[in-house]
Specification:
mitochondrion inner membrane, mitochondrion, about 100 residues, transmembrane helix, mainly alpha
Length: about 100
């Protein structure tokens, strides 16, 4: 029976990818929120700005987790166009 068992290659194992993404998202959300709370307590007096720093930290955590998960699923949230560099032959540059 064990001989007939098929293993899924890591490239196509969506369950493992989703588990990794969920774990990464929860950890980064919590750690960044705690960092925002610590920064808010350290730098601000107003409760509104303290909550804003917690929300900012949570947003940073979610954004970084989203970026990492999109890379894990073989895609990028932002595709940057690389500039194409064309070289001219040295003989043409010297003639001008």
């Amino acid at each position: 029976m064990a001989e007939n068992a098929r293993t899924i290659p890591p490239k196509y194992d969506l369950d493992a990818k989703w588990d990794a993404c969920l774990d990464l998202t929860v950890r980064r959300f919590v750690y960044a929120s705690l960092g925002g709370a610590f920064g808010g307590l350290l730098f601000f007096r107003s409760p509104a700005t303290r909550w804003a720093s917690i929300a900012f930290g949570a947003g940073l955590g979610l954004g970084s987790a989203y970026t990492e998960c999109s890379r894990l699923f073989d895609g990028s949230p932002a595709k940057f166009a690389t500039p194409k560099i064309t070289e001219t032959p040295a003989s043409q540059d010297q003639q001008d």
